[in-house]
Amino acid sequence: MNAERKTDVSEAGVPGSPEAPRPEALLNTLRLLYVEDDQEALEELAHFLKKRVASLAVASNGLEALELCRRQTFDVILCDLWMPKMDGFTLIQTLREEAVLTPVIITSAFSDLETVLKAIDLGIVKYCVKPIEADELLDSLCRIAQDKLSSSGEATGRLMDRQQRLEAEKALKSAFAHLLKSLTGKGPREVHVSLGAHDLEIWATEVQSPFETSLLGLKEHSGVVPYLRKSLYTGYQQRFEALIADHLKVSASLEEVRVVIEENTDWLVFKLRG
User: With 50 as the cut, is the pLDDT of residue 262 above it?
Assistant: First the structure.
């Protein structure tokens, strides 16, 4: 992002008519992955986006982005094309082969027809030529958010503004850590919460107890630990669901549990209804 940019995506905000404000609550439902190898461009656009979306993850190449997509769920991917280690074309193709259908917006300085058509053939939803125009990008993000809500068949009345969402996430972090400690005797070092319009993701890090760590040191018994941790969440599923329902005032159902032993992390996905 540089001085030639047609529309400045700076601290001043988004240009546009005050009579037709962009629906901020829609953007607050998006979990966005931004992939860009130009560090200056990444930092500038990331600074602009993180104040508008529910959560923002960044990667400096396609390989880093692929690993993130295998561990987390995103609502939209904003991706450069020409990057080291793995380019944007290969990233998108690999994700599609792995049945990851997350909408992709391309950001590229290349505008030749061959490049654009190649990207379109991979099923992208938007091709933004650098320098990026803020209005164009945010309009595309709003459309993706609206499509996400419409496809769920639910109303948008439960959408929170940014401050409400941050407060809800903070309360959930504390409550989840307390419940996990009460059940296992050891609380997580960190809890990360990502609240969308219709689902909730929770990552808890450094969760393994000394007993579990000892078991992992015994090769013949190391497989017991992921089984035990998954059983913990499924066995006490109703308590975790009730905790979320109490904080968000909606119905919550546990949809997925992943135990990543090598990273000492548990990852849970809850579906929200009502």
Answer: yes
- The whole-model pTM stands at 0.61
- Give the CA count within 13 Å in the CB-facing half-sphere of 35: 32
Non-local CB neighbours of 256 within 8 Å, separated by 6+ positions: 267, 268, 269
Q: 3-state DSSP helix/strand/coil percent for the chain, to nearest 5?
A: 45, 20, 35
Where are the chain's structural domains?
A: 24-152, 162-273
**DSSP structural state of residue 262:** G
Please write the tens of the pLDDT for every residue from 117-169: 888 888 888 898 888 888 888 888 988 888 877 665 443 335 566 677 778 88
Find out if CATH 3.40.50.2300 is the number for domain 24-152.
yes
Tokens of 26: 């829609």
Q: How do strand 265-273 and strand 190-195 relate by DSSP bridges?
A: unpaired
Q: Of 144, 134, 113, 128, nearest to 30 (Cα)?
A: 144
- Cα(263)–Cα(208) distance, integer angstroms: 10
Q: How far is CA 184 from the centre of its chain?
A: 28
CATH architecture of 162-273: 2-Layer Sandwich (3.30)
